[in-house]
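Please go through this protein, sequence plus structure tokens, and consider how the sequence yields the tokens. Keep your notes short.
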Amino acid sequence: MFDISTEHKKKINAVINFIQQNPQEELSLAQLAGIANYSPFHFQKIFKQVTGESPKQFIIKVRMINVAHYLLTHTHKSITEIALDNGFASSSTFARSFRNFFGISAEELRNIPSKDHTTITKYLKHIKINGNFFVNDNNGREKDLSIEIKKAQSLKVIFVNAPLTDIGEIHKSFKRVIQFAEARDLLTVNTQFVGIVNPHAGIYQAGITLQAHQEIPKGIDILNIDGGKFAVCGITGDTKQIFHTFHSLYEWLHQSPYRIKQPFAFEILPQSPLTNPYENMERAIHIPFEPV
């Protein structure tokens, strides 16, 4: 059995981030192994040791979770469009893969009313994702949200992955990225503390922003967040509140002339989570949207 060293985890995390950012692409084993700088044979073993899944299983999971998200939120798109946009070669291949993965058809999932999305969790028990994303238990809470429409500029973020449901690991990830930045004099008065939230995949990316003039450092993951229009509201508490807020924002968007643009969001922290506990701060969560 491999020793899951920090270096192994770091390299596999880089591959995970690449897959999540490019799920629609044709991702070969050789390409992914090259990102981690392993031979394909060793890469498969190390990837499974770190994630519990083969690279192929993980890619399918990411694509399926994205598809499920878009089926529920992008009702203006056909099922075939969504399938092709997320890396499936044909509608027949997609239909077979979807039923094998979820146990129901894409049509059946799409036709479940939003008020009954709690029933979706029964199809997720065998899958390593957080079913809370699909559960709507807001009881009308979207009416109490103070939602603003804001324009935001593009952000360049260096980050460290953490499980979305583990506050302790989120704290550790922020500490790692901040210490990394401090050691390279990357922290400035304009630095923002950012959490990139991928709720249906159960991943939280704890990060800080880089300025345009700052050189991209080696040895850490980086993500460019496109600017645009966002639905923004305040959030306080642990990550359970993220799920509640997502549902409330989604309900609000369903009743608005907008639709969700991407299956992830980000939150801006008002100060360093090293000086004030993450769950005690009021963060501004941003969900990207576009006109219907």
Q: What stands out?
A: The CA atoms of residues 139 and 248 lie 9 Å apart. The chain has nine helices and nine strands. The domain at 148-291 is CATH 3.20.80.10 (Multidrug-efflux Transporter 1 Regulator Bmrr; Chain A). The two ends are 51 Å apart (CA to CA).
